[in-house]
TrEMBL record:
<protein>
    <submittedName>
        <fullName>Xaa-Pro aminopeptidase</fullName>
    </submittedName>
</protein>
<dbReference type="InterPro" id="IPR000587">
    <property type="entry name" value="Creatinase_N"/>
</dbReference>
<dbReference type="InterPro" id="IPR000994">
    <property type="entry name" value="Pept_M24"/>
</dbReference>
<dbReference type="InterPro" id="IPR050422">
    <property type="entry name" value="X-Pro_aminopeptidase_P"/>
</dbReference>
<dbReference type="Pfam" id="PF16188">
    <property type="entry name" value="Peptidase_M24_C"/>
</dbReference>
<keyword id="KW-0645">Protease</keyword>
<feature type="domain" description="Peptidase M24 C-terminal">
    <location>
        <begin position="537"/>
        <end position="597"/>
    </location>
</feature>
<dbReference type="Pfam" id="PF01321">
    <property type="entry name" value="Creatinase_N"/>
</dbReference>
<dbReference type="InterPro" id="IPR033740">
    <property type="entry name" value="Pept_M24B"/>
</dbReference>
<dbReference type="InterPro" id="IPR036005">
    <property type="entry name" value="Creatinase/aminopeptidase-like"/>
</dbReference>
<dbReference type="Pfam" id="PF00557">
    <property type="entry name" value="Peptidase_M24"/>
</dbReference>
<feature type="domain" description="Peptidase M24">
    <location>
        <begin position="312"/>
        <end position="526"/>
    </location>
</feature>
<dbReference type="GO" id="GO:0070006">
    <property type="term" value="F:metalloaminopeptidase activity"/>
</dbReference>
<keyword id="KW-0031">Aminopeptidase</keyword>
<dbReference type="GO" id="GO:0005737">
    <property type="term" value="C:cytoplasm"/>
</dbReference>
<keyword id="KW-0479">Metal-binding</keyword>
<dbReference type="InterPro" id="IPR032416">
    <property type="entry name" value="Peptidase_M24_C"/>
</dbReference>
Length: 597
């Protein structure tokens, strides 16, 4: 089955054999991960779509793929419109589409290990109104036809020591135990891979670019825990690190273990745990308490050690970025630099630090019209050269033991148009507005999002992604629950109150389809702010990312005096922070790029 059309046909034949009239294929795994291991890449295998968010639905005569505004162009380039219809989230939903398109009395299959209980409830209701059923499968039909499906990773875990974690696993589990007692609960399920990595101070390599290991866990009200992970993944160092307070089981024993919890009160996160966990516990006679995973908020609020590590990682990463930008300024105008070669060169500069564990995501290396795709992923087929008088956008990050980085810089090769400068400056103004915002404690990211968009809105334009996402500590580059996003956004989380210690991205953008794209991204830390005469506890942001912003793309007439001072001050800090990491021509180039406007 070399073609995606063949794969779709094979799946339809399997559904007919399974007495199903349709099947829902999400892009996730049994941990509701954003990025998944190769064994769980069912959506990409079936459709060809390589974005990081999407769902497909297959019916006997129709098939649809659902993506949000970040992937409007990409999905059409990667998924064959002769076989799939393109559906936009949030304009419609899988449940609504099924209600409109499934036949009366249809049996629509779903894998309960790949959907939340809330999604199942909504989909069942929508189908019931059509006289159709949602049917849980015991074996995913894609797995039945995916003959060369990769096996889950067997890579070993590693210890994330207290020198990087800042707190012991025992201390974290005891805090959870105290919380469980307040809830009058016996245990909490941890199914998100980042939660398990953080709670047990371990890391893994089972998912590209995210240092996590495939596992499940339960933390009990006495501070002990049960960890479910393939035994071949545990070396003596990890077993010793886990200690007697952690009982280790095979990962395959997780579901049977849940069936033994009759009469127990168990906390399960309805946003992070799959429906199968709820269904298994309820079927076993346990009392399920739907509440947030107790590691989520402590994980998002970085401790002093994690913040210090992140600052160190940013300095190291920033020096690599500066070396790359200088190289690019010399080589791109000569011709011969492509999106792929630029991304490879940037990775080389990061690797030269000697401390790079991985990239934090596939580098978004977009030249000209490809830069207009917010989540563009360069391939041999799409690879473009960097051409004169065109924009190049590079969004990238590194995974280091002491921190996770994420930075976007947009540069001009040659001379920009007046429109490019106008749009770039409006994006910069939005970035500055977020960076300098002051707000009372309890403010949500959704309340700040407009600050970044106001200057683009004034010109009648906007961007179809959130302004900022949370970032982990040597964990996921996209970490909840905090984010800066519009109300009603498909990227949930903007309603979380921002708290000191949270790290977010600040990344407004502008994208002109078929022409160019712009994004400026720094990471920022939520910190307390002292304001004379303030009657409330006030917060603001501290900038963590340091690298030059391309002054050739700035229309200085659009900047206020305060914005000009911010940029000059920022560039002075770039020199002060990154300069000591550089020598010779690299340092001289940096100082020239950061000269005051």
């Amino acid at each position: 089955m070399s073609s995606h059309a063949d794969r779709l046909a094979a799946l339809r034949a399997q559904l007919q054999s399974d007495r199903l009239d349709g099947f829902v294929v999400p892009l996730t795994d049994e941990h509701m991960s954003e990025y998944v291991g190769s064994y769980a890449q069912r959506l990409a295998w079936l459709t060809g779509f390589e974005g990081s968010a999407g769902t497909a639905v297959v019916l006997p005569e129709e098939a649809a793929i659902f993506t949000d505004g970040r992937y409007t162009v990409q999905v059409r380039a990667q998924v064959d419109g002769d076989h799939w219809s393109y559906q936009s989230i949030p304009d419609t939903s899988v449940a609504e589409w099924l209600q409109a398109n499934a036949a009366d009395g249809a049996r629509i299959g779903y894998d309960p290990w790949l959907h939340t209980a809330d999604w199942v409830k909504r989909a069942k209701k929508a189908l019931a109104e059509k006289g159709a059923e949602l049917i849980a499968v015991t074996r995913n039909p894609i797995d039945a036809v995916w003959a060369d499906r990769p096996q889950p990773s067997t890579a070993r875990l590693s210890v994330q020591g207290d020198a990087h974690a800042g707190r012991s696993s025992a201390a974290k589990r005891q805090e959870m135990a105290d919380w469980l007692k307040e809830k009058k609960a016996d245990a909490a399920v941890l199914s998100a891979l980042e939660s398990i990595a953080w709670t047990f101070n371990v890391r893994g390599t089972d998912v590209s670019h995210t240092p996590v290991a495939l596992a499940f866990a339960l933390v009990s009200d006495d501070g002990t825990a049960d960890l479910f992970v393939a035994s071949e993944k545990l070396g003596d160092d990890v077993r010793q690190h886990l200690g007697n307070g952690v009982r280790v089981h095979e990962r395959a024993d997780f579901e049977p273990f849940l069936k033994t919890l009759r009469g127990k009160s168990v906390v399960v996160d309805p946003q992070l745990a799959v429906a199968a966990i709820f269904e298994t516990l309820e079927g076993a006679g346990a009392k399920v308490i739907a509440a947030r995973d107790p590691s989520v908020l402590p994980r998002a609020i970085k401790n002093e050690t994690e913040i210090a590590g992140h600052v160190a990682a940013q300095v190291r990463d920033g020096a690599a970025i500066v070396r790359f930008l200088r190289w690019l300024s010399i080589e791109a105008p000569k011709g011969g630099v492509t999106e792929l070669s630029a991304a490879a060169k940037l990775q080389d500069f990061r690797a030269a630090t000697g401390l790079l564990a991985d990239l934090s995501f596939d580098t978004i290396s977009g030249a000209g019209p490809n830069a207009a795709l917010p989540h563009y992923r360069v391939s041999e087929e799409s690879n473009r050269p960097l051409e004169m008088d065109s924009i190049y956008l590079v969004d990238s990050g590194g995974q280091y033991r002491d921190g996770t980085t994420d930075i976007t810089r947009t540069v001009i090769v040659g001379t920009p148009t007046a429109e490019m400068k106008d749009r770039f400056t409006r994006v910069l103004k939005g970035n500055i507005a977020i960076d300098t915002a002051l707000f009372p404690a309890g403010t949500r990211g959704v309340q700040l999002d407009t600050l970044a968009r106001q200057f683009l809105w004034a010109a009648g334009v906007d961007y179809a992604h959130g302004t900022g996402h949370g970032v982990g500590a040597y964990l996921s580059v996209h970490e909840g629950p905090q984010r800066i996003s519009p109300a009603g956004s498909s990227q949930a989380g903007g309603d979380e109150p921002l708290k000191p210690g949270m790290i977010l991205s600040n990344e407004p953008g502008y994208y002109k389809t078929g022409d160019y794209g712009i994004r400026i991204e720094n990471l920022i830390l939520v910190v307390p702010r002292e304001i004379a005469g303030a009657e409330k506890e006030m917060l603001g942001f501290e900038t963590l990312t340091f690298a030059p912003i391309d002054r050739r793309l700035i229309d200085t007439d659009l900047l206020t005096g305060a914005e000009r001072r911010w940029l000059n001050d920022y560039h002075a800090r770039v020199v002060a922070v990154i300069g000591p990491e550089l020598e010779g021509e690299d340092r001289a180039w940096l100082e020239a790029e950061c000269a005051p406007l």
